[in-house]
Amino acid sequence: MPQLESINQICKDCGSLFTISPEEQERFLDLQRSNPEFKMPKRCKDCRKAKRLQRDAEAEAQGQPQGQQYKSHNRMKFPRRGNDDAEMGGNGQW
């Protein structure tokens, strides 16, 4: 894999210049491998933190646990395993 270099980016919220280090890029690329919709940040760290706090406050106002409105759509739905023989036709197979 080629050596990554720091990337300078302009924050889409505040317009300040911020840097994404090679280590941060590696972390984001790892996340992107498991979720292709995951993108490199477009906001500086302060604006990302403010955005998270805003989302958590909105979720709390709607009576949702913090972060759940975004986590629930990312969870894949898999059939439960265990004592669900009735759902599986009684033979343990789908």
Note down, in words, how this protein is organized.
By secondary structure, the chain is mostly helical. The protein has a domain at 7-66. Helix content is 36%, strand content 9%. The chain contains 3 helices and 2 strands; from the N terminus they run E-E-H-H-H. The protein has helices at 22-34, 45-61, 68-71, and strands spanning 7-10, 17-20. Strands 1-2 form a two-stranded antiparallel ribbon. Strand 1 and strand 2 form a beta hairpin. The longest helix is centred in the middle third of the chain and has 17 residues, at 45-61. The termini are far apart.
Mind sketching the topology for me?
Elements: E1 7-10, E2 17-20, H1 22-34, H2 45-61, H3 68-71
Antiparallel strand pairs: 1-2
Provide a compact summary of the structure.
The chain is mainly alpha-helical. 36% of the residues lie in helices and 9% in strands.
Features:
94 residues; single chain; 36% helix; mainly alpha; two-stranded antiparallel ribbon
Instruction: Please mark out the parts with pLDDT under 50 across 5 or more consecutive residues, or reply none.
Output: 71-80, 82-94
- Number of helical stretches of at least 4 residues: 3
The secondary-structure element order is EEHHH
Mean pLDDT: 77
Main sheet strand line-up: 1-2
The quaternary structure here is single chain
Describe the main β-sheet briefly.
2 strands, antiparallel
- The Rg value, from CA coordinates, equals 20 Å
What class, by secondary structure content? mainly alpha
Instruction: Work out the helicity level.
Output: 25-40%
Cα separation of the termini:
41 Å
